[in-house]
Amino acid sequence: MKSIILDERQFGTHEECGIFGIISEEKQELARDVYYGLFALQHRGQESAGIAVSYDEDKVAYYKNMGLVNAVFHEEELRLLPSTNVAIGHVRYSTMGSSNVVNAQPIVFYGRFGRMAVAHNGNIINAPNIKKRMIYKGHIFQSSTDSEVLAAAINDYSTESVEQGIYDACKNFVGAFALLVLSGNKLYAVRDRNGLKPLIMGQKDGNIVFASESCALDAIDAEVIRDVMPGEIITVNTDGSYTSRYFAPPDKRPCIFEYVYLARSDSVLDGTSVYESRYNCGKILAEMCNIDADIVAGVPDSALVSARGYSDVSGIPYVDALSKNRYIGRTFIQPSQSMRENSVKIKLTAFRNNIQGKRLILLDDSIVRGTTSKKIISLLRKNGATEVHMVVASPIVKWPCYFGVDMDTKEQLIGGYRDAEEICKLIGADSLHYLPLEKLAECCGCGNFCTGCFDANYAVDLGNFHSEKLLFE
Amino acid sequence: MKSIILDERQFGTHEECGIFGIISEEKQELARDVYYGLFALQHRGQESAGIAVSYDEDKVAYYKNMGLVNAVFHEEELRLLPSTNVAIGHVRYSTMGSSNVVNAQPIVFYGRFGRMAVAHNGNIINAPNIKKRMIYKGHIFQSSTDSEVLAAAINDYSTESVEQGIYDACKNFVGAFALLVLSGNKLYAVRDRNGLKPLIMGQKDGNIVFASESCALDAIDAEVIRDVMPGEIITVNTDGSYTSRYFAPPDKRPCIFEYVYLARSDSVLDGTSVYESRYNCGKILAEMCNIDADIVAGVPDSALVSARGYSDVSGIPYVDALSKNRYIGRTFIQPSQSMRENSVKIKLTAFRNNIQGKRLILLDDSIVRGTTSKKIISLLRKNGATEVHMVVASPIVKWPCYFGVDMDTKEQLIGGYRDAEEICKLIGADSLHYLPLEKLAECCGCGNFCTGCFDANYAVDLGNFHSEKLLFE
Amino acid sequence: MKSIILDERQFGTHEECGIFGIISEEKQELARDVYYGLFALQHRGQESAGIAVSYDEDKVAYYKNMGLVNAVFHEEELRLLPSTNVAIGHVRYSTMGSSNVVNAQPIVFYGRFGRMAVAHNGNIINAPNIKKRMIYKGHIFQSSTDSEVLAAAINDYSTESVEQGIYDACKNFVGAFALLVLSGNKLYAVRDRNGLKPLIMGQKDGNIVFASESCALDAIDAEVIRDVMPGEIITVNTDGSYTSRYFAPPDKRPCIFEYVYLARSDSVLDGTSVYESRYNCGKILAEMCNIDADIVAGVPDSALVSARGYSDVSGIPYVDALSKNRYIGRTFIQPSQSMRENSVKIKLTAFRNNIQGKRLILLDDSIVRGTTSKKIISLLRKNGATEVHMVVASPIVKWPCYFGVDMDTKEQLIGGYRDAEEICKLIGADSLHYLPLEKLAECCGCGNFCTGCFDANYAVDLGNFHSEKLLFE
Amino acid sequence: MKSIILDERQFGTHEECGIFGIISEEKQELARDVYYGLFALQHRGQESAGIAVSYDEDKVAYYKNMGLVNAVFHEEELRLLPSTNVAIGHVRYSTMGSSNVVNAQPIVFYGRFGRMAVAHNGNIINAPNIKKRMIYKGHIFQSSTDSEVLAAAINDYSTESVEQGIYDACKNFVGAFALLVLSGNKLYAVRDRNGLKPLIMGQKDGNIVFASESCALDAIDAEVIRDVMPGEIITVNTDGSYTSRYFAPPDKRPCIFEYVYLARSDSVLDGTSVYESRYNCGKILAEMCNIDADIVAGVPDSALVSARGYSDVSGIPYVDALSKNRYIGRTFIQPSQSMRENSVKIKLTAFRNNIQGKRLILLDDSIVRGTTSKKIISLLRKNGATEVHMVVASPIVKWPCYFGVDMDTKEQLIGGYRDAEEICKLIGADSLHYLPLEKLAECCGCGNFCTGCFDANYAVDLGNFHSEKLLFE
């Protein structure tokens, strides 16, 4: 895996990440806790992993590299990272092309208050403008990430203190961000004013812990304290004491797609269980759809829960229709031309005995480009399903996401300019059913989400960023 | 991952592997098919992977290394392996200590009939005796595996032809083996006289294919022809023609543990669907147990199907109680002392909302050492389960396996010298229920299995190998 | 070779590097020329190597890593770097502790004029002050090198053009620097006002080339045009035209240690052949010393030439006394305790037959810490030399270097507070003879060198930087 | 560096290696001594390195890999090899194509007397016949080396003891071999009956040491005891006692090319200093040639000594004409087409000032294919030499070597079918002078060498192996 660094498009939309931080009174081997935390967040990023720890009062040691958490970190790396009071870590999402170690996090630098490390999940949509402004003032940037812009901006604003710098900088950021900042012996946790990205606070044996999702707190046996609030900056000291401050009035609009697909089902986000939201979607769909069929199944892994919800309400028996190869990873070799059309077979195989001669209801979490759905339906028919009714636990994805979820331009979305009927034909289903947005929101337990990808009702006013061209030139 | 090669115990019981082979009329990039096949068999071995192909009539090129299939093979390695008429591959199970590249397969060597490659799944229990005899005759062995002994013996017996060598050698092997042999332009497939290890034959576009499990045939879109029969040697030519011959009268005693745990649920072994056998186990257990509880759940992944069978028959609702981190791999770092007791948390987390205040029936496929069961039950109780009734879809594991399944000595087996009641206490369950052996066999669709690990009724008469000491000195 | 990045002392004195740049009218595979150039400059840095090339008008691709040039770059890396009009490269010196890829060069960044790459040889002694000032203004720094400060400062000053930025920044740099800057389709070459570090300009088939030493021009068959002058900025266009400008009146004070030890003997620096300067040192020493001995020898490799000069003038026969293992590299394992005192034997062995029973004159280029000299003399005596007279082709090293040569504090220098007689006793020689500074300067062909390490007459007024503490806090 | 293992030509002529072994009374970290010994023998093989040590009475641990000694072994590998009484090591020569880890040594195997390790330098020319015979008996071979054949044959013959097996096997080997065998707690050292390959015995602190050359004894500070004699088997016990036995009457015919080129100049082979033999060659050439010229120079590194001898006798001043880049290694990238003709420049540059306008006598150790000589002469002329007289410190190489020196077929040798005059024209020299064979032998201090490459007077009667075709089919 060569990493010649080519010049990249400045800022992409494809940033999804997991962050984890911990602070303790005594110096401990905190890098190990971060390791387990990142491991639990691996589903949020398989491209790169990194850990930074403070030591000797004002110093920071770090290690980051391309690959899965357990490929990047071994006993040796963990042992080489000093015992510490504060540690943060980061995993980054794998997308083609822009993956190289220069873009890995945490970002560690020397600035106004000495050494600082920053881990960021999200997408600052006005980063190009901030970068332009900072370059105008003489700054330089060594990567193409908005996270480096964010880090430089926080430092630039930190004229009095790091906390004040975070405060002032965050006021200027437009977009999505959950942030962990390590500086001196303090750990700062921040969430954007809409709470677009999740960030939860916990504690374990007196240590304060932050993570993108509650499942990472579970992994190290930490207890949940509460979610970081939209617009909130929490400053934690080594003794476990902390202060809270708001850089903006919270306007809670968390990303609804976290429930649909991104988060792990055993996480609880902003008080709502991801698992239950998915189960309830299935239940509501069963009430709505009233499809005459013999069996219900789900596309593994995320839609299995919804399928069970559907089955429980409809009374139609739940079966396993598809088996997923659990060793599929990012370095998988592309099939040769002759096999390409069957590529889905390498990832998924069908339980012929379970579906043969059956009319099947198939639950999936969402349909983005539609290519996989088409292949799955074809696979099921070849294995004897007489009907395949596709039931989707979310509405039609019609708009791109500007806040870090890997969705393409409107043109590339199968639902970008099509209705359910047209999509149904394209993917070759017997019928196609979507969950209305209000029902989805209801299942996710909170009235006010960012639902931009479904209805263009983005958390942030994109008035000044109204065309992609403008945004990413 | 340093690979200083230390001298190892000669032959271990811990060999479980996957094999795959393919032969075609025209020279093709068959290594790629083997790659996908091995990938589908990855659950049978995560320690090493290798592929050997014939070329230029009598030559063999190969590549093998430690690691997962997609870590060992990339585009470059596949491209460097020549186009070929015959290719075989192998994945090897990961056990501590004895893992190094010297033991990886296929084994490739020069012998009586030129260059030959062998891929072996199983355990030849009289390998130490054969080795001793061959060393007496002047042979040398460069690894500690029984597979090298098997390869050398086949060559030694091949005085007239490779097929005859295989025939005569196999008559002398005691134990379990599914074999693929590449020699010249022929591919040989062999299964021991008891059919202890699975081996299935398929075809795709005129190419003949062999694999440990049918799921690997599915992965490359090949159709099943039939299982290789116990005691059968199938010799395939490049034109797809093949001959069958028996080196011994078949005495079919396939390993029942393949259904319980080893095989992928979407495979069909000797005509019986693994999925269905597991589902049926759950159903029968429900009929037998009659436990008064609120919910039914399974330990992921293999016991989820049984749990569903239990639920369907008992009417007790099925829920997800445990979530499994799907990134757990072989290089995972051991938790620090303070976390060790909670190590199961890194792999499994509980869905608190689903189980809180509930009396839970938990299905698992088997209990070997019992340590994981104990931790899981404790985790479930901490998350609010008021009762945990453990239901196991197989009998008490009482005896070690001599044919390649990773089971320890009788002493290390929790059921080695204990009955269900004692085990129940040790793992901390409210009640514990095992599936009687005859019921398990019934679910697996075939009257006559090797059930040695459950009742010491091994396929092979261990008279001459009656003590472990004798076997492995 | 793990590269956990620990926080480092800000700026060390131990920076010695080689740089190479080339610009052509047509897009060519210039990275290959840089590769060969860096290879010829390998003696100036074995720690890391890097190449940056411009492409698509305003983009820059680069690759850098730890290791020797031919360990970092293979066909694959060279092929992946795009064809280009401008390319620069860098090799960095190996010192313990501070070696990691974050400090490797070229430094590539986005700034006022888009993408820019900088390769630097030297030491900016007011870098801490500049850094402090820039941090005060809000800049951040991601490494601990003065080269990043230099790059950031050049960009900061580039308000109108890159050339003007280089001009203004260089006026503010105190210290030693030879610089290559790649920006857009231009290549800039700069040398500090004292010309402390060498930089030579050549041409090949119309392409303009710069290198730290002329041997790198020879390596790609380029012809020498001339040395870059102290204080000069040369701006080269792709058509081969160039303009020259001085940011300061030249005050030529090149580092005399380049001739003594640093440069390759087949280079010509500022018009003087390094080989001849060394040979002449030997001749003068012979005239001066008048030692009664049987044979003359040199410590390989750099002092062999001086020994020959000594022999030619004195008439005392030249012999090979020591053989050097040419595979010694940076990763060599330290000998165990019992062997440590003999560690010089691994690098050097003595030709017993040549020296046995002989009174020996041994030439060395310089004595810095004295430990190696002591071991060599002991080795020679053990192999039969009856007398060892040490003759050094430079004066006593008495002062540290602030401009990039790896010399320690005054305390660590054997000559820091000692005269020749005391040093002679410490290293165990029969007599010890140094070359007077004026003689050395004479041999190096130029009247006005930086000779700070010998007489504290540094090229730069260290008034404001008079204590190390101040300099490197 | 991918190592797909292709099927290789069985046995090549291109085997040159270094071996080292040590045995001690107390268990020690002997792998470290082997490391330093191999390091001193690095010039005999840069392709692969390996070390095997005995432990726990009858066990052997080993590590081997592709690369230089200090790339293969680091602290970690040395630490992982157990403390031991006996250790052997091997470095292997780099030739294109056949380099992969399967061919690396020591060869370690289980045989009649348990675990054994073998390190071999040389070429068994009847290995194909032995191999054929052993395959006929049922043996298998996993590599294409004659060393595996040698190891298997020794074991096969070891019906009573290892020593007797070595004895009987060696009687049957035709060709060149210096051998170290580790078995149990004994170390065996063997040299073929002609003593074609060097092997020397030393001692250090009571430990007995063997090495291909005396320079490796120097490296660990061991004292020379004596050379192993042709046809001798020395068996050493851990207490330092040893017995000697001859498997054949010695017919001393050591390889003369060891003195010409292969050995390190600071080694003493069979009592003759390599350095002095080379120096004396230069002296004799000066007496013979009587060339009218201004200066004498040598091709670095091996011919510098001869040039000095020439200068000392002729009175013509010695100068350095060529500088060699000491970082050239095996992974060096081939120059692009445009640079290929100048490729010698990357390795060698000329000291223009030393040779301009001068008539030059250039000493080289030998001319094999002649391509490098041609380039060097052209380079010298371009740098101003008015005449270049080539003086070669050995005779015309006219015949291939069958015993392990990398020489090509007669057709590829420039002197295969040409006399000095024709060669002189081809390489573009003003005159060309070779050293007569009897003079060379005289300089090497021993009357009876294998001089097959010069006069077809091979140590071994090639009657039965008279055509290459027969030998290597």
CATH topology of the largest domain in chain A: Glutamine Phosphoribosylpyrophosphate, subunit 1, domain 1
**Uncertain parts of chain A:** 8-14, 95-99, 466-473
CATH homologous superfamily placement of the largest domain in chain A? Aminohydrolase, N-terminal nucleophile (Ntn) domain
Give the termini distance of chain A in whole angstroms: 29 Å
Q: Determine the most extensive contact between two protein chains.
A: A-B, 54 and 54 residues
What does it look like?
The structure is a homotetramer of 473-residue chains. Chain A has 473 residues and is α+β, with helices and mostly antiparallel strands. Chain A folds into two domains: 4-252, Aminohydrolase, N-terminal nucleophile (Ntn) domain (Glutamine Phosphoribosylpyrophosphate, subunit 1, domain 1), CATH 3.60.20; 258-462, Rossmann fold, CATH 3.40.50. Chain A contains 18 helices and 21 strands. In chain A, strands 3-2-4-1-10-9-11 form a seven-stranded antiparallel sheet. The first copy, chain A, has a six-stranded antiparallel sheet with strand order 5-6-7-8-12-13, with helices on one face. In chain A, strands 16-19-20-21 form a four-stranded parallel sheet, with helices on both faces. In chain A, a hairpin with a 2-residue loop joins strand 14 (268-269) and strand 15 (272-273). In chain A, helix 4 (127-136) crosses helix 5. Chain A is elongated. Chains A and B meet through helix 1, helix 2, helix 7 and helix 10 of A and helix 1, helix 2, helix 7 and helix 10 of B.
